[in-house]
Amino acid sequence: MCFFSQNGTKKSWDCMQTHDSVSVLIFNTTSHCFILVKQFRPAVYMTEWERSKPKPLQPAEEESAEAAPAEPKVPEDDKAGEASEGTSSHQPPASAGVTYELCAGLVDKPNLSLEEIARQEVLEECGYDVSVTKLRKITSYRSGVGVTGSKQTMFYAEVSEENRVGEGGGKPQEGELIEVVKVPLHEAMTFAFDESIPKTMGVIFSFIWFHSNMSPKYKISTNV
């Protein structure tokens, strides 16, 4: 909680201190696809769970429900396949908390540059060994401005199958469970604006950046 005065009015705000971060848009020049990561995010899952809960009955609906005859209780043995006692029947599947993201990581190693941290994340999460000299800075911006105010720096990296030295997937010993995902270049913009695919704003922004800055150079169509 932080306290401040704005235009003579005393205010308080819930804040959380966290590390800055880096993210990397990875483009595979061999297969002409973007390399993203997919992982479970508890905060996203809890939001979807809250959204799926039944809405409270309005007064008129409550009166109607009270007037309706009670449903006969079915023995537990006859409820095979239904939610067990103590388990909410509206609980969404785990897939509701999975999101598509750029390869990214926290800036928590003071002895390393942003480029070196980005290089490590590409290697650990996606399995590609990229030289720091091959990382191109796209821009930096504030993320989580309502709570953390941390800064994220975004890079662009081109890789090929020759750079692939592992499967990626993060560090299991640190609790990471990451799936590497390929998005074909010709499907990128459709993917970016498909609201049924849960993704971060970084994915959308970086795909648009690529379309504006790299597609003309390489004369590549992004199906826009």
From TrEMBL:
InterPro entries: NDP_pyrophosphatase (IPR004385), NUDIX_hydrolase-like_dom_sf (IPR015797), NUDIX_hydrolase_dom (IPR000086). The keyword Cytoplasm applies. Residues 17-205 form the Nudix hydrolase domain. Residues 73-82 have a biased composition (Basic and acidic residues). It catalyses: UDP-sugar + H2O = UMP + alpha-D-aldose 1-phosphate. The keyword Hydrolase applies. It is found in: Cytoplasm. Its cofactor is Mg(2+). One of its GO terms (cellular component) is cytoplasm. Keywords: Cytoplasm, Hydrolase, Magnesium. GO terms for biological process: nucleoside phosphate metabolic process; ribose phosphate metabolic process. Belongs to the Nudix hydrolase family. Homodimer. This is Uridine diphosphate glucose pyrophosphatase NUDT14. The gene is LOC113100033.
